[in-house]
Design a protein that fits this description.
Strand content: 15-25%
Strand order of the largest sheet: 3-4-2-1-5-6-7
Largest sheet: 7 strands, mixed
Distance between the termini: 12 Å
Helix content: 25-40%
Number of strands: 7
Oligomer: single chain
Order of helices and strands: EHHEHHEEHEHEHEH
Radius of gyration: 16 Å
Length: 209
């Protein structure tokens, strides 16, 4: 079975506070991978394949952050609900863009932004933890999750392991994820994840049956 058979593109934490150099918590390399993410998202959209954008939203008291991050969240205005810094990179969204609906997202619902495209809130590193992502993907007939986005060692890596634990086939676009390193990529390969470049993925999406 081809990797892209019934696949979904899952973008992770591509929000202004994590990629803009003047943001309160920029993640090294995230702005640099944005063009590759844009190409991949456009290819999925053109092929009418589903896209889910996973985002963080930190309350001012830090109560919905990981314990290790709560002090940081209380001291910095990072991806606060409704803030400009919480918004997704416009390059990743359909023409016309879309502002996040924090009330809807924090209530655990998916926000539609296109015919087969949604935004979802995740309360922890992995996108499957205490979210409706698994059931949503099953409702779409998705069999493969392809991950791109911000800070491989934390959220993308965790999400890939969670997807594998739920029997989804998995893929990572190596030049469309910040923070990648060789040992981590090798470990992903040993759990069956396919690793490819953005150009390779775009070509496969364009040429799929």
């Amino acid at each position: 079975m081809d990797l892209l058979h019934n696949s979904c593109l899952l973008t992770i934490d591509m929000q202004a506070d994590f990629y803009r150099p003047d943001a309160p918590l920029p993640v090294d390399g995230t702005a640099e991978v944005l063009p590759a993410l844009q190409r991949v998202a456009a290819a999925y959209r053109k092929a009418a394949l589903p896209i889910v954008h996973a985002v963080r939203l930190y309350l001012a008291d830090g109560s919905n952050a990981e314990p290790v991050r709560r002090e940081l969240v209380r001291s910095k205005n990072v991806v606060r609900p409704g803030s400009a810094g919480s918004q997704l990179a416009p390059e990743l969204l359909p023409p016309g863009g879309c502002n996040l609906d924090p009330d809807l997202l924090l209530d655990g619902k998916l926000q539609p932004v296109g015919p087969r495209e949604w935004i979802m809130y995740k309360p922890r590193w992995g996108a499957f933890y205490r979210t409706e992502l698994e059931s949503h993907l099953h409702s779409l007939g998705v069999e493969t999750v392809v991950v791109v986005g911000c800070n491989f060692p934390n959220c993308p890596r965790t999400t890939l392991y969670e997807a594998s634990e739920r029997d989804f086939a998995t893929g990572l676009v190596s030049d469309a994820v910040s923070g990648v390193y060789d040992v981590g990529l090798g470990e992903l390969a040993r759990i069956g994840a396919a690793v490819m470049t953005a150009d390779e993925l775009v070509e496969r999406v364009a040429g799929r049956d």
